[in-house]
DNA sequence: AGCCTTATTGATCATGCGATCAATAGTGTT
DNA sequence: AACACTATTGATCGCATGATCAATAAGGCT
């Protein structure tokens, strides 16, 4: 009984194989971290020789950077999509805080934290990190500015406030990565803090129901 | 001309050599990250054979964990010392926020961020991280509770608020690790957010002078 | 002065990494 | 049916890691 038959991998169209590789890298990163993206790990995951992965990517650094961007950009688009469905900036901001503190997204948080460190030695990755941080900040700034225009928020520096909110979310998520217990009502406390920063009424950013645990 | 004479290292007392090794690991971590702590790197830094480092440490994982604790615990003690010199909780909290956002401490922030990731594969390190996070939280909670006792603050859940403040600080610092520009008045915005959470008067946590750049 | 404890060496092993490239074999086209 | 293109292999190189341990030499003690 051969648990791993070791047959030659079926020949596939380049585009298909390339997609398979980036997909494997993506799953690997989400499950075990960006640093487990190696030629051998990715190749093994799709039953292919290590050299083939190298053949489809200029180098591993680029694969890591690309995987980071794929994972993070997808989340941004997803959340931006959720935003569009809400009528008022107040509700949009509330949903944003609620969604981003969701523990189901801890795997993405782990990617962010690892990228911050890996970026010190992978310049391509560092550039992607800055790019995606800017994208997140733009989303937040947009909501804050819309709130100001609608008369719901009041702050003189939407850009800085957006960065600040982003930083807080990142920090709380990173914390949750290591410490699960201890903090109760993360959403409530954060909402209160943000309400203070954007000049919204107390409680105006809280979701109706206690919702997610 | 031999730039590196390669002589045998002078024999030293075990305690002294051990201290030399932990010190080298410490500096290495602060300069180039926890992951550059290797038997060879540490040994080279003090002009000693790799095997000697292994002789003084059970394994590299332990050296990394110990180095993390040494760096972080020292900072906590230092800040706790500064706290003791201030009369009122309001000033203590203000100083804390101001001090911890100081860019001069970015090297320690980098250690924290790297430890969060490395903790996934180094259980000893993970335990140290949780321990030091608890220590920081305890310091913050103490200040918040003192503020409540003094009638300066008002919140029903000092423990959670302390965790929250800690998370915010961590997040903003991690952000500063990657993005230097964009955010102005980090201290002011954070102070405003924290004032909201602890129920302090607006502006009461701001330092007198703009102080550190 | 001589010995004996032990700090220190450095070679070694097994492992994993990224990268490279000649050889191989599948596939669509002619 | 033969061919040509190219996806795929897998062996290989150089380098780095942690760990181990017999051999060496320094220095304190008698």
CATH class of the largest domain in chain A: Mainly Alpha
Q: Low-confidence runs of chain A (pLDDT<50, min 5 residues)?
A: none
Tell me the number of helical segments of chain A per DSSP (H or I, 4 or more residues long).
Answer: 9
CATH superfamily of the largest domain in chain A: Tetracycline Repressor, domain 2
User: Please, what is the oligomeric state?
Assistant: homodimer
Number of strands of chain A: 0
Number of self-contained structural domains of chain A: 2
Give the helix/strand class of chain A.
mainly alpha
Share of residues in helices of chain A:
55-70%
- Measured by DSSP, the beta-strand proportion of chain A falls in under 5%
- Termini distance of chain A? 46 Å
Helix and strand element order of chain A = HHHHHHHHH
CATH topology name of the largest domain in chain A? Tetracycline Repressor, domain 2
Secondary structure: elements and pairs:
Two copies of one chain form a homodimer.
Chain A lengths: L13 H19 L6 H7 L4 H7 L3 H25 L4 H12 L5 H13 L4 H27 L8 H21 L7 H13 L15
The structure holds a DNA duplex (30 and 30 nucleotides).
Q: Describe it for me?
A:
- Chain A is mainly alpha-helical and 213 residues long.
- Chain A folds into 2 domains: 13-57, Orthogonal Bundle (Arc Repressor Mutant, subunit A); 62-198, Orthogonal Bundle (Tetracycline Repressor, domain 2), CATH 1.10.357.10.
- Chain A has 9 helices and no strands.
- In chain A, α1 crosses α2 and α4 packs parallel to α7 (123-149).
- The longest helix of chain A is centred in the middle third of the chain and has 27 residues, at 123-149.
- The N and C termini of chain A lie far apart (46 Å).
- Chains A and B meet through α6, α7, α8 and α9 of A and α6, α7, α8 and α9 of B.
- Chain A binds a DNA duplex (30 and 30 nucleotides) through residues 8-14, 17, 38-40, 48-52, 54-55, 59-60.
- Chains A, B: Residues 15-75 form the HTH tetR-type domain.
- Chains A, B: One of its GO terms (molecular function) is DNA-binding transcription factor activity.
- Chains A, B: Keywords: DNA-binding, Repressor, Transcription, Transcription regulation.
- Chains A, B: This is TetR family transcriptional regulator.
- Chains A, B: Residues 38-57 bind DNA.
